[in-house]
Write a structure and sequence with these properties.
single chain; mainly alpha; globular; disordered N terminus
Length: about 270
Amino acid sequence: MSVSAQPTPYPLLPLLGRGLAAGGVAGLVSGLFSLLLAEPVMDRAIRLEEKRSAAEAAAHTHAGHSGHSHAAEAEELFSRGTQHFGLVVTAVVAGLAIGVFFTLAYALVHRSAARNDGRGWQRAMGLAGAGFLALSLLPALRYPANPPGVGDGGTVAERQGLWVAALVIGVLGMVLAHQVHQRLGQAGHGLPVRQLGAAAAVVATLAALFLLPDNPDQVPVPATLLWDFRVLSLGGHLVLWAVLGAVFAAPALRRQPSAEREGQPEPASASAVS
């Protein structure tokens, strides 16, 4: 007689190992992406900021202000080479942390799924896409990234609070989209209706983000440079989430052929034996 396999929860410790490995690789790749593509744009932004600070200092001097400019006295604590190395290291550390949270979210969302049902790739990439939407794309549409040196030091706390609020709204929006998709499926609706419902939840999340206050600071950066920086910054996030999902799901691809064979009808001889 044949015994049907019951869905079993994913063991957490092996998943955490996969999540750490995936996060580390994703952080390294995204860090190299930023180093090779975004850092030249950042260097241009830093040079522009230095010129702007020097012009402001000269204006103060011509206006009769005494004393030396803080910008002129400021010394670079770390060389650009050291900063570049720190960028990659920071990206790897951030990737490891994101990998842990990704694993916990995966285990929570798919806690009752069968391990070898052949859908591990779809689940991991779907969750990675949701993470990109919630923590990268939607908040960036409301508060796009700005080059270094942009922004008043007195508004740092306000800007950080707005960014955290955008992240919270993005996460809650993805939870809402998932719940809408699940509830519509339980109600017997087909895939198009479920997808439309989830998309409506994403649109509602974006609308909620635009209810937040505007960025309090001006951005005195040329439009082309600002656009390049923001696109490359978002591209780094996209690389991070795509690599994280792909590396995390890679073991599922090795198990998928056997899972597909398990789902095929048994041969006639085997059926006769059972």
